[in-house]
Specification:
The complex is a heterodimer of chains A (172) and B (333).
Chain A lengths: L1 H7 L1 H24 L2 H16 L5 H5 L1 H31 L9 H18 L4 H11 L5 H8 L3 H15 L6
Chain B lengths: L3 E3 L13 H15 L5 H13 L1 H13 L1 H4 L6 H9 L7 H25 L5 E2 L6 E5 L4 E4 L4 E6 L4 E7 L1 E5 L11 E4 L3 E15 L2 E15 L7 E4 L2 E5 L4 E6 L3 H4 L4 E8 H9 L6 E3 L1 H4 L2 E7 L3 H11 L2 E5 L5 E5 L2
Parallel strand pairs in B: 6-8, 15-18
Antiparallel strand pairs in B: 1-3, 2-5, 3-4, 4-7, 5-6, 7-9, 8-9, 9-10, 10-11, 10-12, 12-13, 14-16, 17-18
The chains are: A mainly alpha (172), B alpha+beta (333).
């Protein structure tokens, strides 16, 4: 019976969370970011993130702890995205003018870069690099081994590690 | 005797969940194929492996979709992307946090799934967003609204439906059996006996609501058996296990849902939205600034997103979509 009611009430509870804690969350984010516009956007995103998810009792009992945990994750992503964007713009600046992508292309590319970054996040740098060289630049394993200064069999291990990571399999 | 004369079959989704072993094999095959060194014989073995078991194919699909972000890059930009992504040091601890969160959310998700599946033991079930009409063996019509679960037990003494969840409309037929069998809908709060009639029963969070469209029904909350309350056409009543909570006139929406329409007469947007939300698996809700807006009209239940689009054209609201299908109706900026 509890679980039934829990489900039925998932949406109204979120409305309550929004009512009582939206202002507080926005203030919390503003203090972290120093920008009220970005704080408002991230607060909105936090609630959007919760929309698709059932709320557990604990989360409702400690709503601010829960909200700030979710908001913290978004904040880290936001800052990470900002770093990626900077790196992207730097690389673009070194390219010839004629190759410059349109603003739409830039936005799409940046979006994809962020997705790939999240997908590979947590992997050691060499594993990440081996995977990118293989999958983005299409290099054969022997050449990757040469570039990274490791053995061929190590490249295969790196590739398997990266692949199982992306697939969400715990390493056996 | 079977209570059911005819029904449509509801099949499962038939998707195999890949086993961990198959997932690891898929990753190994991927690494071999990506090396550019795979022989024709190895490619043949890979093709055989994929077809050997549905779980293999599912694992392979999982492998390729896991890295689909890579193929979203425009061709000419791969090298640039590589340069940008190489130069990124990791923030320590982030992944651990993200993993913990993912585990937390997955547990929430699967608990919810397990609950839903347990309800498939009911005789008749509708999915979220589904409406279904059934003709019972006595000729009565059972109409089920979104996300409902009903058990049927017809015997020589009684025509009994047990409503576990959701909302149903019943239109009773004259019983073809030789001796009279009452038509009863039971719920966790009490039972409703049809007195030659058309009526709807809905399990709500704070009780059971009965709305009568034709003739009468007798309502008996569990703790007052033997003292039925008569509800007549045009009336509705809400009751729990102990007593009748309220009597009220029928709402327009209570008569139109079997035709797939929700009729609103000066309804608060939050109330309208909570009705529409029942037809969606992903949540739908109003931001506080839009909750008190008033709306009248009739809205199709079959295509909620279309209905919301129409609302956003007449009300000062905008539709904000979450990454998992959730929708928030926020005020215009």
């Amino acid at each position: 019976m509890i679980s039934e009611y829990h489900l039925d009430f998932a949406a109204p509870s979120l409305t309550t969370l929004y009512r009582h804690h939206h202002g507080w969350l926005q203030g919390w984010l503003r203090r972290k970011l120093g920008c009220s516009e970005q704080a408002a956007d991230l607060a909105q995103d936090t609630f959007l993130r919760l929309l698709g998810r059932p709320l557990a009792i604990d989360q409702l009992l400690e709503p601010r702890a829960y909200l700030s945990t979710v908001a913290h994750g978004l904040l880290v992503n936001h800052l990470r995205r900002r770093d990626l964007e900077r790196a992207y713009l730097e690389v673009l600046a070194q390219q010839p003018e004629a190759m410059a992508p349109s603003p739409e292309e830039r936005a799409l590319l940046l979006e994809t870069l962020c997705e790939i970054d999240v997908m590979l996040s947590g992997l050691p740098p060499k594993v990440r690099q081996a995977f990118l060289l293989s999958q983005l630049e299409g290099l054969p394993y022997a050449e990757i081994a040469g570039r990274l200064g490791v053995s061929l069999s190590m490249v295969k291990k790196y590739m398997l590690r990266a692949m199982t990571h992306c697939m969400g399999i715990t390493q056996l | 005797m079977s209570p059911l004369a005819s029904t449509t079959d509801t099949t499962g989704n038939g998707i195999e969940r890949p086993e961990p072993k198959a997932l690891v094999q898929a990753a190994e095959w991927f690494v071999l194929l990506a090396s550019g060194e795979a022989s024709d014989a190895e490619r043949g073995q890979w093709a055989n492996w994929r077809t050997a078991h549905p779980s293999h194919e599912a694992a392979w699909q999982h492998a390729t979709t896991s890295i689909s972000a890579l193929s979203a890059l425009p061709g000419g930009q791969a090298k640039l992307a590589c340069t940008v992504l190489h130069g990124q040091p990791k923030t320590p601890g982030r992944r651990r946090f993200a993993t913990q969160l993912a585990v937390l959310l997955t547990i929430g998700g699967s608990a919810c799934l397990a609950y839903r599946q347990s309800d498939h033991s009911a005789d008749f079930v509708t999915a979220v967003g589904e409406q279904r009409d059934l003709r019972l063996a006595d000729g009565s019509l059972l109409q089920m609204d979104t996300d409902a679960a009903v058990d049927a037990a017809f015997s020589s003494k009684i025509r009994l439906l047990h409503l576990r969840r959701g909302r149903i409309m019943v239109e009773t037929a004259a019983d073809p059996a030789a001796s009279y069998r009452p038509f009863v809908v039971s719920t966790s709060a009490g039972q409703i006996t049809a007195l030659g009639t058309r009526f709807s029963v809905q399990i709500e969070a704070d009780g059971v609501r009965v709305a009568v469209l034709e003739k009468r029904v007798a309502v008996e909350p569990d703790t007052c058996r033997g003292k039925p309350l008569i509800i007549s056409a045009g009336e509705a009543a809400r009751f729990d296990q102990r007593c009748l909570i309220e009597r009220s006139p029928l709402r327009p929406a209570e008569t139109t849902w079997p035709q797939g329409m929700l009729v609103a007469d000066d309804l608060r947007l939050e109330d309208l939205v909570s009705q529409l939300a029942r037809y969606r698996t992903a949540p739908l809700l109003c931001a506080p600034e839009t909750a008190e807006l008033r709306i009248s009209g009739s809205f199709p239940l079959r295509d909620i997103e279309h209905t919301l689009d129409a609302l956003s054209k007449t009300l000062p609201i905008r539709i904000v979509k979450g990454d998992r299908g959730g929708i928030l109706l926020a005020g215009k900026k």
